[in-house]
Amino acid sequence: MIETTDLNLLQFASADEIKARTDAKLRALVKHAYRNVSYYREIFDKSGVHCSDIKKVEDLHLLPVLSRQTVKDNFQRKLVADGIPKIRRRLTSTTGSTGIPLKFFSDAASNALRSEAWDFLDRWAGIRHGEHNRVWLGAPRPKPRFNLRHPIKSWFERKRFRQPKDLISVFMLKAETVSGILYEMQKRSPYFIYGISSSIRFIAKHIEEDGIALDTSPVSVIGTSDTLLPAHQQHISDIFNCPVYSRYGSYEMGGGVAQTCPDVSESIHVIPELVILEIVDDEGLPVQPGESGNILLTELTNYVMPLIRYDTGDVGIALGPCGCGRGFPAIREIIGRNYEQIQSPSGQAIHGWEFEVYLFYEKDYKKYIAEYQIIQKGNTIVLRVVPAKFFSEYIQNTLRSDLKQMIGEEMVVEVEPVRYIECAQNGKKPLIRIIHDI
Question: In whole angstroms, what is the distance from residue 318 CA to residue 285 CA?
């Protein structure tokens, strides 16, 4: 089995060598989880599965899927490992974009590897730190709250707090601010763009529509946080005249764990030193290449609070080996969140990515819609649209008719032109919002 931990060398090892390495890491993690984490001990004992039965990635289906709600219910009480020094615990929390905010511990012992993996993915995108300047499109960090139990420490934390200098807040992003933001970006040349995918798409759309000429192109663009489909990547690449990458990550897994292949843009490679990524059906069984399913992650480096078969809430499409020659596992694409869906009165579910395919590939509304968001309130669906250049009242009526045909007669469909789509608190723009009656 290959011994190197250098990702630059490891990426070109054979798939069999990398698989053997991943299986060994999985066996060690499962053994640790059974011995030291009461939640997993109970799961194994109840199911009749012994930790020695999990010998390889293909055996993971013997274990149940770990949901966000289960993590929330068992945090500290059952999911934190015994025998690991408390100094390795790093308390982290998610934004709750799935509706379930989450607290969990990451493992400080894995910080160096995660940082190395991040730099490795940057190098895949042609970025050289110290040479290229980052333009970060994201949400501002909240200022630390004052903690009455630790007033002196809290005072210093708040006094030292600064927003990152390279951050451009997505809350500033409006049609009328795009040209100013582009000016600020190009002042940082040579630069690369990293940020929330929907915000990058918004800027690219306005560059195209307003005929803005860029004096300097970025080295590359990396989209993250929300969905960046292959067609989006190509459009952004055409506008910015540079390569575009989709980086897939998770707060729960400590950041970026996968990224578009540097040689084959139709695939996304997973960093096998960090995680095992499964794409499974609703029964938790692997899907075939070309099929979509739920994305589960097993973090191989967190011994403080192991997350095994954790349901990310994302939907992806499986893929066989990538044609680039790298041995890293690959998937075809991330297509959205499985909670981003509307429900009809009869129980029919329509996912957000299905709207994307219908509006922009089957019906070709690309030149009429700059941005959109779907709101469901009871039996009413409202499509909020930021009109593009050729949008008109006729297009609005046609759009309503086409959506009605897609969704069915049991729901009311409205199309509402708006000036912009507001960001959520975390800076993302959810494709679907459900408004519940109180």
Answer: 12
